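User: Hi! I'm working on a homework problem where we have to compare a predicted structure to a textbook description. Could you give me the structure for the chain below?
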Amino acid sequence: MPITTAALALLTVAMILLRVLWDRVPPLLRFVLIRTSIALVLLQAFFAATRWGTTSNHWNAFISWLAVASYELLILLFSRLSPRWLTSVSAAILMIPLFAASILFPLTELFNPYPTKNVSINRHFFYEVRPWGSFGSANDSDGVDLLICYRPAFAPFLRKKIQPIPFNNRECHAMAATATISPDSKTVLARCPRWPSESPGTVDKLFRLP
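Assistant: Happy to help. Predicted structure tokens:
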């Protein structure tokens, strides 16, 4: 997260510089920047509200970064309106939430060196293995989420997040967890094997698809 915070600070400085030099930007480029910024903010808002996105976490993070840059540009351009003292204060207040954890966390995915694993369970559904805690460790406080996703046939590069199914190392060998879907595609069974030092068996969690 420190890298993400530093990158966001640099992006903010760049947007402030663009705001200062806005009068020197060619009119056509200004036209394109404003309308593209509005489109990117609306696209990100749609993704957040509907849980849709691309099947690549890095692309999702890249779109999030573009949306943040677009939001900053629009807010800073708003601060150029009169009365300046009011719009400048309002812009400063509207910029503060960008550094909240809920905004920063999705942006960190762009710097994640560990690619997530997508496992197909039928034509339309797959799950993403999302470790949390210390990557690849066996600490009791660590585990994984099996994020169940829907992938439409007409746009296989898109996905809709359906439900995360969590497992932690206190209950089973979380990194070995898998998921299967019922033949009628109505339920998903997530199964996590117990540790070799424990009695044989699995921890099962059944999820009904909406």
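For your comparison, note the following. The beta strands are 52-54, 117-120, 125-132, 143-150, 158-168, 178-181, 187-193, 202-208. Residues 78 and 87 are 7 Å apart (CA to CA). Good luck with the assignment!
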